[in-house]
Amino acid sequence: MTAVAARLLAPLLLICATTGCASVSEQAQDSSLAAISTREPSPRPPYPDLAATGACKARPLKSLAPLQTLPPPGRMPPNTAMARIQAQGHLRVGADQNSLRLSYFNPLKPRDDLQGFDAEIAREIARAIFGDKPGSVRFRAISTGQRVSVMVERKVDIVASAFSITCARRRRMHFSDVYHTARQRLLVASNSPVSTLEDLRGRKICSTATSTSGASLEGTGVELYPVRLRSDCLVALQEGDAEAITSDDAILFGLNRQDPQTKIVGPTINCEHWGLAMRLDEPELVRFVNAVLARMRRERRLQGLRARWFDGLPKPQGGRSC
Questions:
Q1: Domains in the chain: boundaries
Q2: CATH T-level fold of 3-37+79-179+275-309
Q3: The pTM is what?
Q4: What is the predicted pLDDT for the residue at 57?
Q5: Are the folds of 3-37+79-179+275-309 and 182-271 the same?
Q6: How far is it, in rounded angstroms, from Cα 77 to Cα 26?
Q7: pLDDT tens-digit profile of 230-249?
Q8: How far is CA 139 from CA 63, 123, 153, 214, 311, in A?
Q9: What's the CATH code, domain 182-271?
Q10: Could you tell me which residues come within 8 angstroms of residue 315 by beta carbon, excluding any fewer than 6 positions away?
Q11: What is the C-alpha separation between 100 and 298, in angstroms, rounded?
Q12: Which stretches does DSSP call E strand in 178-282?
């Protein structure tokens, strides 16, 4: 384990020793430890062709129409995905446990499971199915590269993990309506002179393998440093293996809060529209989820969650308008 990884791990071990730690699962604990010990970059991934074609090109963010009326919690219509989820007793949610402000495990609050914006969105969906039943959500810790496979392999019911909607991904799964629009930007050391992507030509930029952030930099003259987990990029930046991290600003915001010796810079590189991912053979669940999101917008609870978890996120100066 590197010196930086050891420094990051020490506070967690101290908290566990003094307060006791309860995690979402053993796999989630393993993923957290992997996040601070993984050092070698993943092989450069074969990025999918993100070019929109056909109907998706015309309306790349289109989702299924929401249900006109939500069924009462605990009374899901028979022979639907919601009834299946109700029968299994909990909603299975794929989430990245290493993303501060989005979905992260707080050892000081073991009863709360995951915390953050994405985790709260998932709980809203579960509440619409089960009401206020305790234990109605079970989070499965996943990496960026596992978001597609856990859905296709039916290991989760929903993926809530800063998942950008693309036409390539829509060929394999349904997405909900957009619940958040993020801006791809850069995170650099606080003393770095870098202010734009052009300053990084010929230099290494870290991103998670298979992410749209890495794909968007093809042909820009930078050298990609792909890793498996988002938090691996922070270690790469701290140890000088990469000169910057590129990702959605909400993700970078969490990394910045983990290491105040960093800063978010640059204009918007790309607009990233997040959706909740669901299986292609369960369209009724998509319509149900869209109805829950629509209700949250009407009641301004979606805006409230953004204000709570992204308060202090610096706005970009120029670049693409989202």
A1: 3-37+79-179+275-309, 182-271
A2: D-Maltodextrin-Binding Protein; domain 2 (3.40.190)
A3: 0.82
A4: 81
A5: yes
A6: 34
A7: 889 999 999 999 999 999 99
A8: 24, 10, 16, 26, 25
A9: 3.40.190.10
A10: none
A11: 27
A12: 180-189, 204-208, 223-227, 244-248, 262-274, 277-278
